[in-house]
Structure formats: C-alpha cells, structure tokens
Amino acid sequence: MKQVDLLGIPFLYTNLQQFVSLLDKRIQQKEKTFVVTANPEMVILARDDAAFMNVIHQATYITADGIGIVKAAGLLKNPLPERVTGYDTMLQLLTLANEKHYNVFLLGAHENVLQTVKTKIEINYPGIRIVGAHNGYFNWEDNNIAESIKSAKPDITFVALGVPRQEKWIAENLHSFKHGVFIGVGGSFDVIAGTVKRAPAFWQKLNLEWFYRLLKQPSRWRRMLALPRFVLYIVKQKMKGPSS
Ligand code: UDP
Fold it and tell me: Which residues contact 46 (CB under 8 A, 6 or more apart)?
C-alpha cells in the first residue's frame, strides 16, 4: 500500500472511506490492526522521543490526523488525499459496526464520560454489542484490562487515553490480543459525550479547528508550541530538495 513519508513517519495514502473499508476487510479476516492517527504535535513528539517514535512505527497504519499533515505532504510534493482523523474514523467505524453487528470495547476517559458514550452508542447504534468498557484512569501495571479485552474478543477497541498514552498502551498490550482493530481516538469520547464540543462547520471549513480548540481550551497552548516547529522542519526539508 502506498505510503507518504513525512519527517520519518510513513503515512498511509488513503481517504476516510477507503480506510474504513480496509479496516472492515481486516476485521472480517480476523487480522490484528493497530491504527495511529498522527497530527503535527505527534510528529514532533516522536522526533523528540525515540521511544515514542518506536511505538508509532509498530502501528499497522498511520493516517494523517490534521490539516497540517496534509498541507505539509502537499508542500513536499508528495500529497496525501485528505485527513483521516481519529474522531471521524471512530464515527465511521461505529456506523460500520452497527451495520455488521461488530463487537466493540471502549477504553478511556472519565467514568461519567465513558458511561454517557456507552449509553449514546446503545441508543444510536443498536446493532453494536458493547462487550466491555473501562475508564482511562487505571494503574498502568494493571493487567486486568488487557485480560478483559482478551476474553471479550472485540472487533474494535477504541482507546481514548490521549496522546501518547493511548499509543503506548496499545503497543505494550497488543501481543495479548488475537485480532481486532485498536485505535487511539484522543478526546473523541469527550466530544461524543458532549463535554467538549467539536468546532462548528464554519471553523472546520476554514481549517481553523485547531484555533477553535485553543480558544475553548486555552490550556492547550503549550502543546501547540509544537506547530511552529513542525512548520520549520517541513520548510527545512523542502529546501533540501526532493527527499528519497
Ligand atoms: N485520559 C484518560 N486517562 C488519562 C489521561 C487522559 O483516559 O490518564 C483521557 C481524558 O479523559 C480525555 C482523553 O484522554 O478523554 C484526552 O483527550 P485529549 O483531548 O487531551 O486528547 P489528545 O488531544 O491528546 O488526542
């Protein structure tokens, strides 16, 4: 499958619809799949932290989460079709799971958020069987969660522990599972529960979703310092000429 390398990270050349079909095929074939949806902050984090870079490289697929990745790929003359975010992928997977009666496990967020998400899925996607749910505030050494996922055998596990916790958790525990899709979805549970609002369509159209989130959650500013560094790396790479 075609990949586009961006600062050492191989992004899958795909759009959302193709990607979800690909995941569906792998679910049917009982293949194990680790999905990372990477945004510019994560690219920078991986460049600063070799262990995290290693975790990301264990993913079966890495998709472009954020307009910054798509723009950068275009600038480097190695374009990606569109962004494939964790949130959008989660919604599409829920629709798929509803149609095909797939089993789903929810891992992450605060207990009240988790319970709201669970109820909303039960109401809006009655074809889904939720085979387990656990909040995201547990002892890292606790093997019980991996054990319950192992015995529940979900087709899809949504892991909402935030970056980089969710990717690390999946990478560390993946060996315990036989099959299924494992995808880090960041703050998606909060968005589905309604505790955090996604940017209105207007902001999304202007590609200013990141700015909207900054206005709503000013505490994110520190994390956003990675963005100018990302731009700088991309410009440097561009000046070096076509990469191999
Ligand atoms: N979270 C969690 N366990 C933790 C830390 C965070 O379950 O130990 C959850 C948190 O409640 C929230 C999500 O992880 O639902 C992180 O959301 P954020 O918007 O920070 O995601 P990111 O932008 O890092 O993908």
Answer: 8, 9, 38, 52, 53, 56
